[in-house]
Design brief:
Length: about 130
């Protein structure tokens, strides 16, 4: 019987989407609100989600001014129905794989429409001691 390490996390089901940028020196991925947040060059560029709709696919952090041009270029991308400041590519989209790959390639090429600067975390009072 093979032993399993309980601390080994299963990869996210959509991990394959970000493989083209994972080798970048600045790439960071961490858990955030039940999804996997992906950072490149200090910017939050994607969030991988695998829950119930509308939380099953790619959350695309972007400034509102870029929503129109991104949605025009990537037809399956929509405004997220809950988190309206971001866009969303549902995994159920007919062209999910192609659109996700194209979006990640745009991110890899440093398309400035994708990504947001993370907000500074406020220090808790007990951290100032």
């Amino acid at each position: 019987m093979a032993s399993t390490n309980k601390n080994t996390k299963k990869p996210h089901p959509l991990q394959w989407v970000v493989e083209p940028i994972m080798d970048e020196a600045s790439y960071i991925q961490k858990s955030m609100f039940g999804c996997q947040a992906c950072y490149l060059k200090g910017r939050l560029v994607l969030a991988l989600t695998s829950g119930e709709e509308p939380w099953n696919g790619l959350l695309i952090p972007t400034d509102h001014q870029f929503h129109g041009s991104i949605r025009k270029e990537f037809k399956s991308v929509e405004q997220h129905p809950v988190l309206k400041k971001w866009l969303y590519l549902p995994e159920a989209s007919e062209d999910f794989e192609a659109a996700a790959s194209d979006i990640v390639e745009a991110i890899r090429l440093n398309d400035q429409r994708f990504g947001v600067e993370p907000k500074e975390r406020k220090r808790k009072k007990h951290e100032n001691r």
